[in-house]
Design a protein that fits this description.
The structure holds 2 protein chains of 2 kinds.
Chain A: E1 3-6, E2 11-14, E3 19-21, E4 23-26, E5 33-38, E6 44-50, E7 56-59, E8 62-65, E9 75-77, E10 86-93, E11 103-105, E12 109-114
Parallel strand pairs in A: 2-12
Antiparallel strand pairs in A: 1-4, 3-9, 5-6, 5-10, 7-8, 8-9, 10-11, 10-12
Chain B: E1 4-7, E2 10-13, E3 19-25, E4 31-38, E5 42-51, E6 54-57, E7 65-66, E8 76-78, E9 87-94, E10 103-104, E11 108-112
Classes of the chains: A mainly beta, B mainly beta.
Chain lengths: ~120, ~110
């Protein structure tokens, strides 16, 4: 079945450092790929997404490119801020057609940014 | 404001005492889902609904029930809760098409003693 693997956490960085969180996936067909972020005490919210190969999703300085050849969707940000401290989830939707609202998630990566 | 609401936000109960967690969305979404979040496992889908009176099992449905009598509401029912159902629960909704954004509620932290 479909699966998502994220890099092990937690990740601790200093403010203004470069961030990469790796995400690879296994799926039959061509899923859409997502990054969701969960701030402390809150629900998940969409950070960015890409719906086809070579698409780049971007938002709030974060970027990720849908790489079909390496089945990857790595999250990057050039200069992190303390306010970026959160849990980041990579996810994919059902690749075979209508998603029926189902997302398959990675295990999540905890990011802590220090001043 | 477009949102998904859940109640209660926190619940401590005992084994075997039936409980219901409510979920409501105001975006006229067709699809609604319940997920549970456990450390190291990410989120796993429990049940989903494609429309009123249409529901189906997700990846971890054992011990849970759902109903969809109105488009906006999708309650999660635990008929006889057990300690292994202690978790953080999220309701989500979307239009359901490929690539659609899912909107999540704030979560319900359930502890079963």
């Amino acid at each position: 079945g479909d699966s998502v693997t994220q890099m092990e956490g937690p990740v601790t960085l200093s403010e203004e450092a470069f961030l990469t969180i790796n995400c690879t996936y296994t799926a039959t067909g061509y899923p859409s790929l997502f990054w969701y972020v969960q701030y402390p005490g809150e629900g998940l919210q969409l950070l960015l997404k890409a719906t086809k190969a070579d698409d780049k999703g971007s938002n709030k300085g974060f970027e990720a490119t849908y790489r079909k050849e390496t089945t990857s969707f790595h999250l990057e940000k050039g200069s992190v801020q303390v306010s970026d401290s959160a849990v980041y989830f990579c996810a994919l939707d059902f690749a075979g057609g209508t998603s029926y609202g189902k997302l398959t998630f990675g295990q999540g990566t905890i990011l802590t940014v220090h001043p | 404001e477009a949102q998904v609401t859940q109640n209660p936000r926190y619940l401590i109960t005992v084994t075997g005492k039936k409980l219901t967690v409510t979920c409501s969305q105001n975006m006229n979404h067709e699809y609604m889902s319940w997920y549970r979040q456990d450390p190291g496992l990410g989120l796993r889908q429990i049940y989903y609904s494609m429309n009123v009176e249409v529901t189906d099992k997700g990846d971890v449905p054992e011990g849970y029930k759902v109903s969809r009598k109105e488009k906006r509401n999708f309650p999660l029912i635990l008929e006889s809760p057990s300690p292994n159902q202690t978790s953080l629960y999220f309701c989500a909704s979307s239009f359901g098409g490929r690539g659609d954004t899912q909107y999540f509620g704030p979560g319900t932290r359930l502890t079963v003693l």
